[in-house]
Amino acid sequence: MAVMAVAGVTVLVGISSALQSTDKAVQQQIADGMARQLIDEIAGNLYSAPGGEYQVGLGPSSVESAGVGRSLFNDIDDFHNFRAQRPEGFRGQSLGAEDDFGGSRHTSFQAPSATLANWRQEIDVYYVSDSDQSVALSDSQTSNSRAVEVRIYFVDPNDGKRLLTQVRRVFSYFPEL
User: Fold this and answer.
1) Residue 176: enclosing H or E segment and its boundaries?
2) Lowest-confidence pick of 38-47, 93-102, 139-148
3) Cα distance between residue 48 and residue 148, in whole Å
4) Is 124 part of any domain?
5) Residue 107: domain span
């Protein structure tokens, strides 16, 4: 009986470990897709607002911030310091419930509300050196290149934030000569 009990515990530990690994792999895949979607959304915007190629204060204006979600963001720097504790779509609706047109999916096609409740999206935009784009510039410096970093976290109330994925892309501006 003791041998059977030890064998049973060993099997259960193995199954538990496999389930945890599978859960982490699924989270990683979802986070990667979410981060790449955000980078693609950002790439579809202008490098900067008209006449503002080298602005120092990055981030949305008060008008752009007044929109629903990111719907009024029209240039890359507007995404600077974007944070959403429950991941949001373009129009500010919870991911997994939106229909991409500002409404909600039929309840039968929505992700369970707890699925992404502890996830967090973070976006930072900053200038980088034109000669070495791995070097971030200080807040008072500008260049022809901006880096965008998108991070997706899982926030555990007991263990804090756990980074699921991070995507970085550099966008460059070439003024007309």
Assistant:
1) none
2) 93-102
3) 13
4) yes
5) 2-172
Task: Please check whether residue 177 lies inside any domain of the structure.
Answer: no
Single out the residue of 35, 43, 72, 38 nearest to residue 172, CA to CA: 43
Give the pLDDT band of residue 37 (cuts 50, 70, 90): very high
Q: Three-state SS for 92?
A: coil
Is residue 133 included in any domain, yes or no?
yes
Output the CA–CA distances (angstroms, integers) from residue 96 to 73, 100, 102, 141, in the order listed. Answer: 22, 10, 13, 39
β partners of residue 98: 104
Asked if 41 and 90 touch (Cβ cutoff 8 Å), the reply is yes
pLDDT for the residue numbered 67: 86
pLDDT tens profile 46-81: 888 776 666 778 889 888 889 888 989 999 999 999
Give which of 58, 74, 54, 172 is closest to 125, Cα–Cα: 58
Residue 177 has pLDDT above 60, yes or no: no
Q: CA angle 154-61-122, nearest 5°?
A: 10
Comparing C-alpha atoms, which of 167, 65, 81 is closest to residue 73? 65
